[in-house]
Structures are given as structure tokens and as C-alpha cells.
Amino acid sequence: MINDVVGWLNGLLWGYALVPLLLVAGIWFTVRLKAIQFRHFTHMFSVMRHSRSGDGHGITSFQALCTSLAARVGTGNLMGVAIAISIGGPGAMFWMWVIAIIGMATAFAESTLGQLYKEENSAGVYRGGPAFYMLKGLKSPALALIFSVCLFIGYGIIFSAPQANSIAEAFNYSYNISPWITGTFLTIFSGIIVLGGMKKIARFSELVVPFMGIAYFLVALWVIGANISEIPAILSNIVSSALGLREAGGGMIGAAIMQGIKRGLYSNEAGMGSVPHAAAAATPYPPHPASQGYVQMLGVFFDTIVLCTCTAMIILLSGIELGQEFGIQLTQQALENEVGFWGSDFIALAIFFFGFTSMVANYAYAENSLPFIKMNNKIGRLIFLSVFLGMIFYGSIATLGEVIALADLAVALMTVVNVVAIMLLTKTLVTLAKDYNSHIDKGDIPRFIATPDQEQEMNLTRGIWSEENTRIK
């Protein structure tokens, strides 16, 4: 009965609300920010030039990017793409590209707002996210509470289950290790890392994510290079299947769109309201809220346009008949066909590191919900930790269909609430983007110092964006 209810809710939210809302929001922010993801494409990279500098209060911009990529890069890239192509055909990849390209503007919006409305806690560490800009920017405690509940359910309970499931399946396929053994190891190892706090999670992500991301990209590049003559036909197949131009693909266009947008959002998280937590925790350079918007736009680009495309090419070049394998095992079998026996082992290793970093980043995100749902105390944190770790073990031994359906529902609930909020804060967002661009046009280092009028208009509190705290040191 629970599965039936979850399926009904997913059909309602994804079929009638979320897909149109995501497309409208992405186009809305692309227009209002004057196609920022295209105009300032190279600027995304230049912002990272000084991304390792910080002030000791927050994490660095590079750590914020790695933490957000740790949550993004995981099952969505290796398993999610496989599911999308299995169900929606090659055309699903086209719609993953579409939702990523317009979603870059949405990611800029939410991450800029997350940085603007951050606050410094008693330990001298920055924190923020959608609940903070809903509370402070929109003056809506009710909306902040609703989002915090969705965040707790999604990142605190559900999202780590698909990651654990993929790792357990990959290890069972490659090494015949029982899922309950993998689940026990993941549960213990995750507990050790998350108890170290946000800075330890960021440091762990900073070390692991770039290494595994580059390694996976190079392997995919090798596969693509070895089959370079087939790439034009693969790209043509993706586009024609997406638009229903092929005879057999005409009836698949709806499935391609739905799976592409579903798995694309689950992978790059643009608009979900998760990444603003990492963006808010950073000490930005340049010292302007919009700089974190550029950093996280870059995260969407790397996640979907680069890494998801790598997985799609590996699968589509392998010659495997779609539908025979499902989930992470499809990616393993595809790479094994291309490079030999070590292909499945490499995917097992990659999904372990990608999936594990996603799980610990999930904990860091969910932790931000605790003050809003009155669980920011010893007992509340103990309950949270127990549920979080328990779901990792459950995900390891559950079926893929169960955990994916729950994850889709949590994604939908979070995204609907967050996208509505950031669209209501468009005026503030446009003001910040114009302020940042005015500095760039003058050749200055962008630095945001709120005037008294801006503080009143944006509902800011004096402190973080005052002159003494945004001075270049």
C-alpha cells in the first residue's frame, strides 16, 4: 500500500507540477539574468582562481564546490543515467542536457540567495540555505518549516538509501559481497566521517571528489576516443530519439522527457534547495554573494554536461541492448564490454567513492534543518544520526525500485517549495547580479556592501555584509 501511495504522489507531482515548474523557472531565471550561463560561461572558471582562500569562519569556495559535487556526483551520474536510458531510451540524455543548461541559471539563483542570507553560528561557522532565505528574505516561518521538514526527510532519511543501494549492488556484482556486509561497513564508516562536522566533511570531499571525477572522466575519454567514428551516430540517435523523429522513438518521447528531467534533477540538484547549504557555508572570493552562484553553476555543468554524458557514451557505445540491465549493473557491464574485465571493478570503486561522499554530504545538508524542526539538541541529534545511519543500512539491502521511488518523492517535495521561494525573491537576485556585473564592468573586484536601504529592502541584518567583513585582506 505504501508503494502505491508513493507511486500515486510521484505521478501527481512529476506529471502535473514539477516538470512544468522546473522548465518555467529555468527559463524565467535565464531571461531575468540575461542568459548568465551563456554570457558568463568562462567567468565560472575564473571565479575558481582564488577558490582556496578563506577567513577561518567558513569553508573555502573550492571546498563548497567539492561538497556540493560530493552530493551531486554519485548514483545520479552512474546509476541514474543508466535508469534514464533504460526506461526513456537514448533521448533521455538530451533532456538531461536541457534541464542542466537552463538549470544552471536556477542554481545561480538559489546559491546566491543562500550566500546572501547566511548567518554565523555560536561556533563561528557560517550556515544557511533555503530555510534561511525563506525566513529572512520572505519573512515566512511557515515556508521555512515546510522546507526544513522536506529537507530532513529527503537528505536526512531517504537520499542516502539509493547511494548505499548502488554501492551494495556494484560490490555484489563485481566481488560477490553480500549487501548486508557492505551495508554494515558503510554505516560504520559514514558515522565516523559525519561526526567530524561540516569542515571534516568538506575536507574529505575536497580530497576524494576531484580525484575520482578526473579518473572517471579520463576512462570515459579513453572509451570515446577508441570509438570516435561512432560518436556522430550516437549523438544523432540521442537527438532524434528525444524529439520523436525516429519511427520506433515516437512513442518514447514522453518517457524520454520524464526520465531525462527526473534523473537530471536528481543528479545536478539545480532548484532542489540542497546546494545553497554548501554555498552558504563558504567564505566567498570575490566577497560577493553572486560569486557563489557562479561556483555552483560550474557544479551543474561538471555534473551533468560532463560526467553524465560520459556515462551515457559508455553505455550507448557498448552495444548492450537497452532494458536487459538496470541501474548500476548496466554501467558496469557497459564499461566491461569496452575495456575488459577491470571495467566493472572500476565502476564499483567509482560508485563507492562517489556514493559515499554523497552520503556524508547529505548529512551536512540535513543538519541545517534541525534548528527549524526543534531537533538541534543532544537527543534530537542522536535520533537524527540513528535514523540517517539506519537508512544507509536499509538502502543496502532494499530493492532499487523501492529506494528510487522514495527518492523521487522527496526530490519533488523539496523542489516545489524551493523553486516557488526563489522565484518570489527574483527582485533581490536581479539586484545582486547587477551589482556584481557593475564591478566587473569597471574592472574592480566585486564586493557587496549592503546600504541601509538594501538592508531594509532585502530584510538583511547588519553584520556579514557590512564593510568590515567584506574588506579584501
UniProtKB/TrEMBL annotation:
<feature type="transmembrane region" description="Helical">
    <location>
        <begin position="207"/>
        <end position="228"/>
    </location>
</feature>
<feature type="transmembrane region" description="Helical">
    <location>
        <begin position="403"/>
        <end position="425"/>
    </location>
</feature>
<comment type="similarity">
    <text>Belongs to the alanine or glycine:cation symporter (AGCS) (TC 2.A.25) family.</text>
</comment>
<keyword id="KW-0472">Membrane</keyword>
<keyword id="KW-0813">Transport</keyword>
<feature type="transmembrane region" description="Helical">
    <location>
        <begin position="12"/>
        <end position="31"/>
    </location>
</feature>
<keyword id="KW-1003">Cell membrane</keyword>
<feature type="transmembrane region" description="Helical">
    <location>
        <begin position="173"/>
        <end position="195"/>
    </location>
</feature>
<feature type="transmembrane region" description="Helical">
    <location>
        <begin position="300"/>
        <end position="320"/>
    </location>
</feature>
<keyword id="KW-0997">Cell inner membrane</keyword>
<keyword id="KW-0769">Symport</keyword>
<dbReference type="Pfam" id="PF01235">
    <property type="entry name" value="Na_Ala_symp"/>
</dbReference>
<feature type="transmembrane region" description="Helical">
    <location>
        <begin position="142"/>
        <end position="161"/>
    </location>
</feature>
<dbReference type="InterPro" id="IPR001463">
    <property type="entry name" value="Na/Ala_symport"/>
</dbReference>
<keyword id="KW-1133">Transmembrane helix</keyword>
<feature type="transmembrane region" description="Helical">
    <location>
        <begin position="346"/>
        <end position="366"/>
    </location>
</feature>
<feature type="transmembrane region" description="Helical">
    <location>
        <begin position="378"/>
        <end position="397"/>
    </location>
</feature>
<protein>
    <submittedName>
        <fullName>Alanine/glycine:cation symporter family protein</fullName>
    </submittedName>
</protein>
<keyword id="KW-0812">Transmembrane</keyword>
